Amino acid sequence: MIALAADPIDRIVAGNLLFAQKTSEANPNAFTDLTKGQWPEILWIGCADSRIPETTVCDCRPGDIFVHRNIANCVHPDDVSAASVVEYAVTHLKVKKVVVCGHTKCGGAAASLSDADLGLTLNTWLHPVRELRRKHTAELEKMLDDDARAVRVAELNVQQSIDVLKQHPAVKKAVVERGLTVHGMIFDLGKGQLRVLDEAGGKKGNGLWSPRN
Prior knowledge:
Keywords: Lyase, Metal-binding, Zinc. It comes from Bimuria novae-zelandiae CBS 107.79. This protein is an alpha/beta fold. The protein has 2 domains: about 1-35, no CATH class; about 40-195, 3-Layer(aba) Sandwich (Beta-carbonic Anhydrase, Chain A). The chain has 9 helices and 5 strands, in the order H-H-E-H-E-H-E-H-H-H-H-H-E-E. The chain has a 5-stranded mixed β-sheet with strand order 2-1-3-4-5. Residues about 205-213 have low confidence and may be disordered.
């Protein structure tokens, strides 16, 4: 058993050794297999929040999920980083599903409930989410507290990101040619569970988002 260190860097290095040891014991070929390439079926676009590591919360293994994460799981039309990840995953890795996953207790969604100054970069990044809040002010004001409002903003933000993804050339082509589907989800931090959204970004989804031309 490898003792875990107190220093954060020493902690992750020791943790890695433990991970490598356990993985190799369970499957001696695990890492050799990973060197042969990657064939993930899912592209996951999630929040950078440290509490929602997609491979862990979905009980998946390295190689199962191709990932892009940022503050509040946003997909902006002019974001070259997200667009390049999408193109690589969809065109070259040929993923079958794209997931945009928001979550409860999201700092970005909560910050978007007001126009407080967060600094130039964060103000710019969250501007589209704050615009969503302004657009849906009447609906949000009917809710009892900021937690509920932040969850609804997170849902609306997932929907908006899906709308942007629908316009990505690689996504549009893959939808037509091989049936790629795009799904919106919310991870409930307090329950540790994923909730699938319907196409309207509703709270009780019945399945998936399906991009159209």
